[in-house]
Amino acid sequence: MQSILFLSDNYFWGMLAWLAAGACSLVILVRRRRRVSSRARRWVHAGLSAWMVLSGLTGVELYYALLYDTTDSFSMTNVSKKWFAMHVKPGERELRFNTRSGILYREDHDLPATRGDEDQRHVVFVGDSFTYGHGVKRTGDRFTNRLAMSLEATRPGRYTITNLSNAGRDLYWVHRLLEELFAGKYPVDRVIYVVCLNDIETFHPRHKTYYTDLARHAPKFFLWRDTYFFNLMYFRLRQFAIPDIRDYYRFVREYYDGQPWQDMQDRLDDVLALCQRHEARLEVIVFPFLHNLGPDYPFRDVHDQFAEWGKDREVRLLDLIKTLQPHVSSGLTVNAYDAHPNERAHALVAETIERALFAD
């Protein structure tokens, strides 16, 4: 019942008033049933029937408000927002670069400001919600934290792994973050940028208004806007009617055939040059879209495009498609409505990264 602490005040007092009204109406109906004539009693029975239907719906609503605990891909529902408030926000840390700028990051330790010893290597992971652990409750279940624990067990003190990713971040943000880290003289030996294939959307003009356009579809009526079950059902139904959601992955695929892909390569080149100037090694990991991974996976040639970029610039690139595709049938996403990798996928990725990028 921890979730009750994360309900809004309006919802809490509104639900309390609704429950009190329901209890009072039941008492009134039962008393009226004993005192009215048999002819009028049918109206009382109709009222009792309506009361039972509303009580059932209230019970369902309370289940989704207090017990149902998961996310959706775009985190538009109140259920998903509550999940973040419960499992992510309390554990976020703040990293300030100066009085005007800083970031919040999800990690079990602070970013080291100095190197532990001369042989220790500090590895920084950057990326978006796939790296951040969208839908993964425990920080320790993310692939970066699993990797850190495994490396510490086999090579104690050799590596410090810090995950500075955040949901919805792009390559522009990554470049600015690295500039701040290098300017602050933080010990960064390796930068591992984890690509989610929708990172390209920031290089298309559509992206400038995409999430603003989505916000216009938010419900206005309080029953759909302020509840949990009814709000969830509203978005479940609306996602099939909103082209920006229904056709989202088709849009993303098209971006790789045009100017956005060239612009993304240019920004990757900028990040690479920045790392090289500060004697940090850049490595890239490419995550597939897990929800449609299979024989007809539409992004397979996009992975080849990233591989070609890495080969041309002599950047070590790890493609996770071969790691994850054999396990698709066992379930690799958070749920049917959230295409982010679940704990099983994170565990597989951690093992692959250690073999591929830390064997040397």
Write down the domain tally.
2
First-residue to last-residue Cα separation: 47 Å
Low-confidence stretches: none
Strand tally? 9
Provide the helix percentage. 40-55%
CATH fold descriptor of the largest domain: Rossmann fold
Order of helices and strands: HHHEEEHHEHEHHHHHHEHEHEEH
- Multimeric state of these chains? single chain
* Helix count, DSSP H or I runs of 4 or more residues: 15
The main β sheet shows up as: 5 strands, parallel
CATH architecture of the largest domain: 3-Layer(aba) Sandwich
Q: On the 0-100 scale, what is the average pLDDT?
A: 91
User: Can you tell me the CATH class of the largest domain?
Assistant: Alpha Beta
Topology:
Elements: H1 9-35, H2 41-66, H3 78-87, E1 92-96, E2 102-106, E3 121-126, H4 129-132, H5 143-154, E4 159-163, H6 171-183, E5 190-196, H7 207-215, H8 222-225, H9 229-238, H10 243-246, H11 248-255, H12 259-277, E6 281-287, H13 300-313, E7 317-319, H14 321-324, E8 333-335, E9 338-341, H15 343-357
Helix pairs in contact: 1-2, 5-15, 6-12
